Amino acid sequence: MLKHLMLASATLALVACNGAKTEKPADTETAAPAAPAAPEGATPGYNADRNAYFGDTHIHTRNSFDAYIFNVRRTADDAYRFAKGETIKHPSGFDMTVAGGPLDFYTVTDHAEYLGILPAMNTKGTKLSELPRAADMFSRDPDKILAAFQGVGASVRSGEKLEELYDIPVINSAWQENVAAAEKYNEPGVFTTFSAYEFTSVTSPDDSGGFGGGNLHRNVFFRNEAPERAFSTLDSTNPEDLWDWMDEQRAEGRESIAIPHNSNVSDGQMFRLETYNGDPLDAAYAEQRMRNEPLVEVTQVKGTSETHPDLSPNDEWANFEIYDELLASYVVSKTNGSYVREAYQNGLKLQEDQGFDPFHFGLVGGSDSHVAGGAYSEKEFWSKVGIVDGLPFQRGSVPMPGITDWADQPENQITNNAKHWFSRWAASGLTGVWAEENTRDAIFDAFRRKETFATTGPRMKVRFFGSFGYTADMLDAPDLARKAYAEGVPMGADLVGTGEAPRFIAWAIQDANSAPLQRVQVVKVTSSGETVYDVACSGGATPDAATHRCPDNGASVDITTCDTRPGTGAGELKTLWTDPDFTVGQRATYYVRVLENPTCRWSTWEANRNGTPPNPALPTTTQERAYTSPIWYIPPA
Amino acid sequence: MKSLLREPLVHFAVAALLVFAVHGVWTTYVARQDGTITISRADLQRMAALYASESGALPSQADMAAMVSDRIRDEALSREARRLGLDRDDTIVERRLAQKMTFMISDLAETPEPDEATLRAWYDAHVDTYTRPPEVTFEHVFLSPERHGDTLDRDAATLLATLNAPAAPDWQTLGDPFILQRAYGDLPIREVVRLFGADFAGTLAGLAEMDEWQGPVQSAFGLHLVHVIASTPSHVEPFETVRAKVEADWREDALRAANEAAVDDIVQRYKVHIEGAE
């Protein structure tokens, strides 16, 4: 059966390749916008102009060592059933259903380190369950549990194996369990899964002696066939060794990509300007990094990694869901080297000075939920670490039970963790891809093209195209997308200069089940700076030519009811934009940011339901957004 | 093939192979008895070949020594573990063995060929599986409020008249661009909700199939003129349409049943005694 599946997907890959080739028209003088025929073997819904598909590329289940200790017992099967619309249980006892309806794709990315070991330690009759560490780990003594767990975390971080727990058959069989679940639920044309896992590298440890430190995690996705085992930090903590392994797998026909995440808490290490071992970067490093890591997760429950107010003082929207404490730690992460926008700038500097760019990546979003189901809606939030932050008082949106006034809130372990960590997390995120159809090959191809965008939870759709030949009348052409592809490039691509100024089409629609759009922006990054331009405003307004800002659109939120003012915001925004500060000989990275009208933050929804005032330390509203992969302008040779 | 079997050289080779195989079994047996671990020439060649295929180079003397000592260590430890009975009380080892046995059985289990009556009976018993949700096949022409402003409603009325005129232009050349598809086939209503919102989906589900364009229908994005080509309520698909799927489902179930029967056969060979369960 498996063989047949593989054969079938190989055939599909061939078909997809042919499709992509024939789809690019040699001549662009198309008078009647007849839809190109779908290639043979295409699934229903195939669209040569590409559909937006939404999914979560970052999900944990009981097989992750940390999820299990958070009392998570849901499996990969449960995770996929959740994504397809079924209701599953949170470890704190309530029901979870995916906000906004079933997702198009979903990926379980359990930590590869000690994969499936904790479930085995908690299964009577196994050798692992007879270890003293197992007795401590599943005791009722919080100190013993913490010590046993920290021991595992410390090993994941240091890469020094705990021989007693490094049970290879158990680990590999848990991996095969996850691979089998991905195979079982993958349904071409309907629902896509990938075999995937998380490589859990941690840098700059704090002094806790445990897992605490800077986040260098990445999720590894296999296009089709999965390997027998997963390369983890117990093989090497150096991500460059992971890339070597991925290169080897690729040579044997197992294609994969890795997606780094939470650079915001990497202590400046994710985009540092040195190799893991402190050597200078070079062209070979950049090439290997981009071959293996074409995408970066820019938003998730644990904060946003786009930029930081200290890095972007002129961006009024930079102070958005900033979370900056190292993993499992109260130590603040270094800012420089931790954010995507700064990495784009450093990439351009390296390109101009030394001829290579290791940060030429596109953007995606994920939840990093450890409870098998992602929390994407502020209105129905359950955070991500199971029984530790499953209830509102644990995450600081409402005072401790029995207290109604924030002035009486005590200081203890729960309120401290809420203050440092959980109150500063938020509902997020999803990956949008533009792909011809909902199949592994089409979606993986979109990953490779970087024709992807990230959202903080809602499913707004955003297109971004660049060209030197776009004209204003195209905005009214019923076949706008087809023309835009034919005469230019989509998000994720390079646009090589001709001497003229590039023209961009930025086009977005709101999530029909979420708030309307407030504005569409283009963020421009060069080696010498950054500028945020509003390019399309709701309410029929135009951006001010000097400040590049839309006028106030009158949107507001009543934080006592979370009602929003009706009649403000737009269902759709689109524009043709030319950079007013364009310099023909200067490299520039352009990406689009789409902002919804303001809505209640999850902590306000929970406070209202509890009948207590919102936590005064937290923002009451949020502004959901989408980020596209960039288009890179490259000057003419 | 037959002529090959008459070749004396082949006789010799087969005889040699047999001697080799018997010798192999014998030495293993001897090793089990007297505690010797034998690494045969063939073992060495296999290790070298594996190394070469993985690394692309021949192993050095030191590589060979390391591989041999690993192999001896594994063999000694696993024999010792078996001697101590560690393989017997480990749930994970037991489950793995049971799993391997199950895989072996499932390759052997045979399923009979289904006849028409069997498949029809299966279909009747699993009618839910072959029921489709309400679906709609439609084309739509979009009018953007941002582009039309105050004349949106009037422009929609004009465009509707154009679309329904006797010599109407190709609908695909009319209206504003829409960021998603302009034609959908057999789209389940719940998908319409996801893409266009509940209000649009509710209105669309209530429109009748007809040649004329209808609307405008309001969505979160603007106005849509709609051509409903087919609107299908929830219905059971006829047997003839889904025959292939019925057969595949039946086969999967029959195979599962055959596998279970094969497992049961094995279980039946054992007398089961559960203490305290008499």
Helices and strands in order, then pairings?
The complex is a heterodimer of chains A (637) and B (278).
Chain A: H1 2-23, E1 51-59, H2 65-69, H3 76-83, E2 88-89, E3 95-96, E4 105-108, H4 117-121, H5 132-137, H6 142-158, H7 168-185, E5 192-193, E6 195-199, E7 202-203, E8 214-215, E9 218-222, H8 239-251, E10 256-260, H9 283-292, E11 295-300, E12 303-304, H10 340-354, E13 362-365, H11 413-420, E14 430-435, H12 440-449, E15 452-455, E16 461-467, H13 480-487, E17 489-490, E18 494-496, E19 503-509, E20 517-526, E21 529-537, E22 557-558, E23 563-564, E24 572-578, E25 588-596, E26 599-600, H14 602-610, E27 621-622, E28 625-628, E29 631-634
Parallel strand pairs in A: 1-4, 4-5, 11-13, 18-29
Antiparallel strand pairs in A: 1-14, 2-3, 6-9, 7-8, 9-10, 11-12, 14-15, 15-28, 16-17, 16-19, 19-24, 20-21, 20-25, 22-23, 25-28, 25-29, 26-27
Helix pairs in contact in A: 3-7
Chain B: H1 2-6, H2 8-34, H3 41-55, H4 61-83, H5 91-108, H6 116-125, E1 131-132, E2 135-143, H7 145-148, H8 152-164, E3 183-188, H9 189-196, H10 198-206, E4 214-218, E5 223-232, E6 235-236, H11 243-268
Antiparallel strand pairs in B: 1-6, 2-3, 2-5, 4-5
Helix pairs in contact in B: 6-11, 9-10
What does this molecule look like?
- The complex is a heterodimer of chains A (637) and B (278).
- With 637 residues, chain A is an alpha+beta fold.
- Chain A has 2 domains: 51-389 and 425-430, no CATH class; 460-634, no CATH class.
- In chain A, 24% of the residues lie in helices and 20% in strands.
- Chain A has 14 helices and 29 strands.
- In chain A, the strands form 8 sheets. In chain A, strands 1, 4, 5, 14, 15, 18, 20, 21, 25, 28 and 29 form an 11-stranded mixed beta sheet that branches. A 4-stranded antiparallel beta sheet of chain A has the order 17-16-19-24, with helices on one face. Chain A has a 3-stranded antiparallel beta sheet with strand order 6-9-10.
- In chain A, strand 22 (557-558) and strand 23 (563-564) form a beta hairpin.
- The radius of gyration of chain A is 24 Å and the shape is globular.
- Chain B is α+β, with helices and mostly antiparallel strands and 278 residues long.
- Among the domains of chain B are: 2-92, no CATH class; 134-233, Chitinase A, domain 3 (Roll), CATH 3.10.50.
- In chain B, strands 3-2-5-4 form a 4-stranded antiparallel beta sheet.
- Chain B is elongated.
- The A-B interface holds A 32-35, 44-45, 47, 49, 51-52, 100-102, 120, 123-128, 167, 169-170, 173, 459, 461, 463, 475-481, 507-510, 512-513, 516, 540, 570-574 and B 86, 89-92, 96, 141, 144-147, 149, 170, 172-186, 190, 193-198, 200, 219-222.
